[in-house]
Here is the input.
Amino acid sequence: MGKPKSWTQEYWRQYQRNWYATHRKQESERKKKFYRENPQLVLERVTSWRQRNPEHYQALIKRNNGDRHYKSAAKCKRRARQHNASGCHSSTQWLARVGYHEWKCYYCKAELNDATLTKDHRIPLVRGGTNWPANLVPACMRCNVRKHTRTESEFAHAL
Here is the structure.
């Protein structure tokens, strides 16, 4: 007699997760190539999904639109993946870090607002830093640009 269906489905799900984890770059290139070669098909699939799932689609739009910090967290997560950095954070965790620092630049103590706030990694991702909330600090654009890929202590010496 064969294996129970649920066990078999779970086995294959786990197999696929493991395969994608070990072939992430190869799969990413395959998908990019497919999207480049079949833009109309991709557009049709996306449109079809949106029509079949209007509630879910509207919830995604409502959650993501206008939430600058959500988009910032997503962008940061993407950059971290590119640099093989560990860790992740949500927009709520990021705003908690900003509140902890009283909406002031971590380096020059300038007052920040939603328009002037930028996210800085104390240890840059390119230097082996993580994307965990503990490695994030609020910074004004001036300090963030000047710091660039230096660590916190290297930047302090340069000031």
